[in-house]
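ok, trying the design again with the full structure, not the truncated one.
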């Protein structure tokens, strides 16, 4: 059973666990892994930028894409660069919502499953507006597997 799997990665432990799980699924069923990083521009640090929610001065989307590509390649090589077919995708979140960006790519690629972590790097924001993984699980047209990595204390 060939499966094409989308794995959103943000550099968190939870996302790393999702990638490891997706690799196991791919080994068992074949198919292609699609690794996705959604670029989030660094916030401004000056007073006006902070008040308006602007990006840092001098930041370009090219920098974001380069950093995203680096993050994906590092995550892949940290696994020992498995022999699975893999494609890297970096998105600048034109849709404005990571959950919609993930689902739009899943639809465009026709993936069979999305495997993602339940806790990303923006936990505080997730407490207020709901987690991305929760939203994806409700709107995705395919299977969504969410992995929770407990805190070291928990």
């Amino acid at each position: 059973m060939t499966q094409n799997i989308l794995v959103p990665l943000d550099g968190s432990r939870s996302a790393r666990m999702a990638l490891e799980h997706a690799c196991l699924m791919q080994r068992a069923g074949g198919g292609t892994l699609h690794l996705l990083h959604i670029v989030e521009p660094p916030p401004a640090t000056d007073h006006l930028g902070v008040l308006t929610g602007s990006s840092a001065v001098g930041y370009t989307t090219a920098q974001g894409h380069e950093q995203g590509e680096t993050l994906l390649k590092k995550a892949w090589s940290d696994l020992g660069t498995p022999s699975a077919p893999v494609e890297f995708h970096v998105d600048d979140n034109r849709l404005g919502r990571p959950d919609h960006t993930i689902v739009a790519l899943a639809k465009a690629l026709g993936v069979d499953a999305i495997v993602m972590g339940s806790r990303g790097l923006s936990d505080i924001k997730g407490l207020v507006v709901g987690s991305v993984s929760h939203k994806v699980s409700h709107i995705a047209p395919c299977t969504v597997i969410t992995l929770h990595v407990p805190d070291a204390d928990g």
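Keeping the full-length input from now on. The domain at 5-147 is CATH 3.40.50.620 (Rossmann fold).
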